[in-house]
């Protein structure tokens, strides 16, 4: 089973999310988001790489464009049904084409499309703390400072964040998949890559969470 880093925004949890803890089984709609557009970019270990065919998946609110990663994960590419996505955003990619993307997997419960759910088990949780700065001296508007981000491990995702964070990075174990992160964990444990899924075997939940936290770090400030 593959391991994937997923970002869950604070406002999505506070609006209508259900708190979860390490070990819980969850089912979430996942979107392959532009990492540079999320909190100023400069994400590090949290990035996800996918490669595979594009498909328009029938859904109640209209077909949703997804990518089926060669290693098993299916993830939405847009927040809206295909018919409502501007052509410039769809680009030249068509169903049946293969794509390669690097981005940030995000939980998206508030979209105009019926995104497919991904089922998995929570293996680690880190609260994301983000630094902010005025857009101009004296301005009431603030913007994220990419180099001012930290991660704090917790056992349970909070319902309310306040000033304590802007969301959580969740390490999700998804059956029937493999990933960069699983590859890194096998490397760390000295497990052959011919045995995907064994990277979590024999590790108690707390030990696995501790190890996964070493594989989810922030970039050093420039």
Task: Provide a concise account of the structure shown.
The protein is mostly beta strands. It has four helices and nine strands, in the order βαββββαββββαα.
Low-confidence stretches: none
Order of helices and strands: EHEEEEHEEEEHH
Enumerate how many helices there are, as a single number.
4
User: Structural class from helices and strands?
Assistant: mainly beta
Kindly, what is the distance between the CA atoms of the first and last residues, rounded to a whole number of angstroms? 36 Å
**What number is the mean pLDDT?**
90
Got a strand count? Answer: 9
Oligomer: single chain
Shape: globular
Describe, in plain words, how this protein is organized in 3D.
By secondary structure, the protein is mostly beta strands. It has a domain at 2-45 and 106-213. Helices cover 14% and strands 38% of the residues. The protein has four helices and nine strands, in the order E-H-E-E-E-E-H-E-E-E-E-H-H. Strands 1, 2, 3, 4, 5, 6, 7, 8 and 9 form a nine-stranded antiparallel β-sheet that branches. Strand 4 (64-68) and strand 5 (74-76) form a beta hairpin. The longest helix is centred in the C-terminal third of the chain and has 10 residues, at 180-189. The protein is globular and about 45 Å long.
